[in-house]
Specification:
Structural class: alpha/beta
Strand order of the largest sheet: 2-1-3-4
Oligomer: single chain
Distance between the termini: 25 Å
Length: about 375
């Protein structure tokens, strides 16, 4: 990942806030957390601001090591084959590059399988995978609904299936892995706590920009609906849909139009932070100033946060993600039982809430843990 150089120090004025952390325009009367992380006003009565702070604090800290710490149970067989399902998206292609590097380090043979995103292309692609019966299959955001017969054949052939990026693992008797159902619940709670935290407990009108094509978006939304009332019983949550096909084109305009139509809105949340790229300028042209936070922040988002053009972001390290998937596949293929029973801890090891206080640490894009490769080499006996 790369981005232009970022500004490490910013002024509160650049963040679009008044000197006391309060806003003007449609969000007048709300106090936002300033560039130093402070609030200039107390939270509203009934808002558990302390709980929101306590929940979010670990997610604002940087990881100091890997999630996994035990060496593999045995040496990696150099004849091990690993197939990766690439659905053709930009993110999937990025993950393949990281997976390929992890495979090279592990000393295994990698296969990239282009699946596309429709049922027929996925079904055809998986039929070819059945013919080769790899030792490990990594399915990241490729829904098993479309290859159920092939899944049974692969499992019968002894293939270890690492199923990530989808929220329905339980439906197929698969292990819920990274970016799945459990992780999505945790990510939704992070967004809810952020809305309360970054409005200093003074905001009560929120909106979630849902991407209906993403199953994890719906899971995050349900998590927000469940967790937000525990922090702020009187808070209101609207939901507006942003189609996936518009995320790189007209999503920003749609957000501005929505905020104009709902001037009561004080903060927004979304699963796709790329919607915020260039959003500040669009809001200024429209004469509004409503901050927000999005998940999966890209390098341009990180730059915007550091330079004061974005309130906050929630970044995930796709490189770490890919290596963790490889690690899971190797361990399970060797017979080790892998269990994910603490998604808060797992998420904190590969993600971070970025603000003006820490975004400047990542001039080339978010990196969860700089010593990742060296540590994995030790765990893998390389």
């Amino acid at each position: 990942m790369s981005s232009a150089a970022v500004i490490a120090s910013i002024s509160l004025a650049a963040a679009g806030c008044a000197a006391d952390g309060a806003s003007d325009g449609p969000t007048a009367g709300v106090t936002y957390r300033d560039a130093s992380g402070n609030c200039a006003a107390p939270p509203l009565a009934g808002v558990d601001f302390g709980a929101a702070q306590a929940f979010l604090k670990p997610f604002e800290q940087k990881a100091t090591g890997l999630l996994v710490t035990k060496p593999l149970p045995q040496p990696i067989n150099p004849g091990t084959t690993v197939a990766y399902l690439d659905n053709g998206s930009a993110v999937s292609g990025l993950i393949w590059g990281f997976m390929e590097a992890a495979g090279k380090t592990a000393g295994v043979t990698m296969q990239r399988v282009a699946t596309g995103t429709n049922a027929q292309s996925i079904n055809t692609a998986l039929s070819s995978v059945v013919e080769t019966a790899p030792d490990i299959l990594v399915a990241a955001a490729t829904d098993a609904t479309f290859f159920q017969d092939q899944l049974k054949a692969l499992e019968a052939a002894g293939t270890t299936v690492v199923y990530a990026g989808s929220t329905n693992a339980e439906d197929f008797g698969l292990l819920d892995s990274f970016s799945g159902h459990g992780a999505s619940i945790e990510n939704g709670k992070v967004l809810a706590a952020s809305a309360v935290n970054f409005t200093c407990g003074t905001g009560t009108e929120f909106v979630f920009y849902n991407v209906p094509e993403f199953t994890f978006s719906q899971v995050q939304l349900e998590a927000i609906r469940e967790y937000l009332p525990t922090l702020c019983p009187e808070c209101k949550l609207r939901v507006a849909e942003i189609p996936v096909a518009t995320m790189d084109t007209t999503a920003g305009d749609a957000i501005v139009s929505d905020l104009q139509a709902h001037p009561e809105t004080q903060y927004f949340m979304t699963v796709a932070d790329q919607m915020q790229i260039g959003l500040k300028a669009k809001q200024e042209l429209a004469g509004i100033n409503v901050p927000g936070i999005g998940h999966s922040s890209l390098p341009p988002n990180v730059e915007q946060i550091a330079s004061g053009l974005q309130s906050a972001g929630y970044a995930a390290d796709y490189n770490m993600y890919a290596w963790l998937l490889m690690d899971e596949g190797l361990r399970r293929h060797m017979g080790e039982t892998v269990t994910y029973d603490d998604w808060a801890n797992a998420t904190q090891h590969m993600s971070r809430v970025l603000t003006a206080q820490n975004a400047g640490e990542y001039p080339h894009g978010f990196v969860a843990y700089p010593n990742m490769v060296e540590d994995f080499k030790k765990l893998w006996g390389k």
